[in-house]
Amino acid sequence: MTERIIRGSVLAPLEDRHAFELLPDALISIDADGKITDVSTDPDKTSAHEVTRPGVVWMPGFVDTHIHFPQTMILGSASGPLLPWLQKSVFPEESKFVDGSYAQEIAKIFCQKMLSQGTTCASIFSSSHPGATDILFETMHELGMRGDVGLTLMNRGAPEAILLDTEEAIAACEELVERWHGADRDRLRFRVTPRFALSCTPDLLEAAGALAARHDLPIQTHISENPDEITATAEAFPDAVDYLGVYEDAGLLRKESLFAHGVWLKDREWDAIAAIDAAISHCPDSNFFLASGPMPLKEVKSRDIRMGMGSDIGAGRTFSLRKCCSRGFDASRLTDSETDAAELLWYATRGGAVALGRGEQIGLVEPGYDADLVAIRPPRWTADVSELCDFLVYLEDHDGLEETCVRGKTLYRAD
User: Fold this and answer.
1) How do strand 257-261 and strand 4-13 relate by DSSP bridges?
2) What is the pTM of this model?
3) Separation between Cα atoms, residue 394 and residue 171, nearest integer Å
């Protein structure tokens, strides 16, 4: 890539506060490696350049902290709640990913759908097929997307076609780690991915924990999404103190751990997550769609837990994290959790970067950060930051996304 300069209005997240500042006329300088070298608001510098896409606002790209690649084509399959939905809709579809040509076709669709909604980075559950996981990595590599991908670990509770025994699964993970973890200056990472406790025997969970420790890998899994799931987990792991305790016992509760949902976590579990500085992915749209319940955002905020927003495709109904933020506002009203559009938008950008352990790479419009940016045209212009965030989050009929960039390179253009 050559050097690039973007001139325009910038909605810039603050580093450690859940808020934004608006730079009405800024100049973003990007070097050939895709890093921001300067952000200037000096009129003498900005006026020397034409405005890039007049009328849009530039901001960091969206970071989807929980999404399932092999569920792309079952978007909107209303066969929930969670456990019946997995059996009826998810597992039959995921079985198709043994076919490499099918995986390749869906990988292209999946990545383009994310880019078309401004998602520049994601933490992704692949299928349980090593070949399909490698194909997804290759597709993201070719496109220039950023993200974490995990081979979904599961050796029980599902059709034979999508189960992988412990030894074979860990061997496949080792190969994927060798090929992809840290690729292209850490643009791609491998993430250890037990599907959830019910899909894994204790020995597979322990092997996953050992794999993460051996290579210092990030981890992702589900937790406390649905009451029936919690009951079944307690029966399957009678010696664990609670759901989180299953992962603790297996060495899967680490600072690098990311837990999706957390709708029904108890105080001890929230406190343990906070104590080790693990992260939560908030998936309000899928929680509503499967009637799992609203996650209490106040529990996250009161403990200062790292958190990002997750689309949770395909229980989630949209690839748009802006729409997920809107659902997050609805969920906050049901749990007496104070929030607003700006805070939710922060979680979907800067917060997601921090939740994925990428807070020093992306999520800020500042020198030294990679230029992972999106350009969005609001329905009407306002210099009021609160009102602008309201437009971007709550006006769900308005898309307005015009460009998606990773390291300054345009990966999606609406026109």
Assistant:
1) unpaired
2) 0.98
3) 45
